[in-house]
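Weekly modeling sync, notes
Attendees: S.R. (lead), two postdocs, one rotation student

Agenda item 3: backlog of single-chain predictions. S.R. asked that every request posted to the team notebook include the full sequence so nobody has to chase files. The rotation student volunteered to paste the first one in as an example of the format we agreed on. Action items at the bottom.

Example entry:
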Amino acid sequence: MPKKKKSSSAKKKKLRNNNSNGAGNTKKSVPLEDVLSQAESAMNMSEIDTALQLFSYAAGILRSRVHGPATTTTTADGSTDASGSNNTDETPLRDNDQDKKTLSTVLGKMGELKASNGDVEGARLDFLDAISLLEAAPPLIAAEIYEGNTLVETVQGECDVGMAQNSETRAGLHLYLGQLSSGMEALSSFRVGVSDLESAISVLERIGASGDSGMDDVEMEGGDEQMDSVNLKRFLIETRRQLCAAHCSIAELYLTDLCEEPDAESSCEAALESALALDEVSSADVVSTAHGNNDGENKMGPPPPDALQTMANFRLSQSRVPEALECILKAYDRMMVGCEAMSALVGLGSDGSGKIDDVELESKSRELVDVDAASSLPEYNFRCQTAKIMLECASLLENDSSDANDTINQCAESAIQVLGSLIAQNDEVIEVWYLLGCAFMACTPPNPESAHYYWENALTMLNKVKKGLEESIDDYDDDECIENELEVIECQIIDVKKKLGKYKEDDEDEDMED
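Predicted structure, as returned to the notebook:
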């Protein structure tokens, strides 16, 4: 019996069922908010590649929203609007502006990640794109609230805070660009960043001076936190600290890349004076905030010692040693508690023995009572530079009086505590072991036993690095690069041997022959 032919309606029904099943098997797209949250978490955990992939995916979605094709809609009067929004409803425009801000933030994060991965050019492009999006955003206008035909309230606070946040965000991007650049190009980026931060501070100070009672209802960017008077104060303090750091970056440029410029010294001095003025205001702000607030969570620590250290470095370049010493010791005061707590972990506490004793580590670890102070210490390289400046000041002071000896000893002992905090954080940096030996020899009287202990460790580590380079030289195509590294290591070995009294003239000839 021949099969009955299926009707057209039966075919359509089957087709609909198939389509329905297929749709059920399709994976749902992950919400943008979840992608951004996962990207932030990966970034905080230093999972750079994962974070970069997630942010890139989010950027693609946001770009399609921001730069997507315009659609034509019909307005209430029958005319067409090519922007894709209805003149009677401005919500789509506001959504697009928010997408621009979010995309700018995402691109900024991508720039940071690429820079940490060594992709300088990629980071630069992302920062420039992020800046252009912020600059394209329309100015915020205060909202007017009506009841019927009566104006009840003009909400200016949210507008002003948004302007300040926008300026602060744009400044951060310009400062990142400056760090990726050099010479006059870096200077230009830093100055734009300074200008934006000054604008943000001006707006925040105006809000604070007005005592706007409506500030309790103003949301910070992101919508997760209310901009009350306490958060406004914190925002202002943090922005001032960023401006202080920007002035320090300009000063450091004049100490390095731009040191040959005719106005290098005066420009460096001016930048540092501005930085120290902000530093003083920030210190006073923290004191007033702490006194006026019993909530420990909202208490801010002292400002970073960037301005003081940069000024110390500048004064040393001018051979004004006493002033350099005053600045660097003030810088140390701000990190002393954390440095001493961490230094005690590796046996460099107040007992003065200067040696790391594994047996004592467990008991010494109990001395790390101020966790906040230790966790808020400046970064590793900053502290290392602090110790170097202290030791340089100690070596330049004339020890022809008891006062000078006391000052030299204060420098050396402070340097030991700073270097001890570095050993506790990472004990594989040879330079830190070498500098600790120098610090113990700079004490009055010197401590040669402890100095030799650290120099011996440094020498052992240098010989290990040298051996590793020699064994791997055949695995590298660039023999010249390896040979240059070996030459540097050999010079360092000779220097440490001289410190230990183990160096002979014949040793250098043997090293060169090897």
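Discussion: group reviewed the output briefly. The chain has a mean pLDDT of 79.
Action items: rotation student to repeat for the remaining queue; S.R. to check formatting next week.
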